[in-house]
UniProtKB/TrEMBL annotation:
One matching Pfam family: Cornichon
Protein name, UniProt field: Protein cornichon homolog 4-like
Organism per entry: Priapulus caudatus
Localization annotation: Membrane
Secretion signal span: none
Annotated gene: LOC106813012
Residue ranges crossing the lipid bilayer per the database entry: 6-33, 71-90
SMART domains xrefs: Cornichon
Membrane topology per record: Multi-pass membrane protein
Similarity-based family: Belongs to the cornichon family.
Keyword Isomerase appears in the UniProt entry: no
Lineage top rank: taxon: Eukaryota
Keyword annotations of the record: Membrane, Transmembrane, Transmembrane helix
Amino acid sequence: MGPELVAHGLLTIILLPTWHPILFLINLPVLACHCYRFWFIPRGHLGQYDPAEIHNHGDLSRHMKESMAKLSFHLIIFFIYLYCMILTLLKKGS
């Protein structure tokens, strides 16, 4: 959880000075969710997905849905960033 939080935080912070306010606003709620989850991990757990707790409380399906939503977000955002990069390269080449 820590490396994901740091990477997403740095990406979100970099988007603001480079003047990408829409991408910043898209990433801000996801960063807030990462921060909330990181700060509220119960004491004694190994992390967000503690193996013993997932099976004890029947949270496996909820965590799977969360992971699929996160994967979908990152996949969509990847193609948006790729489009922005190609657009910028085409503008500089002309």
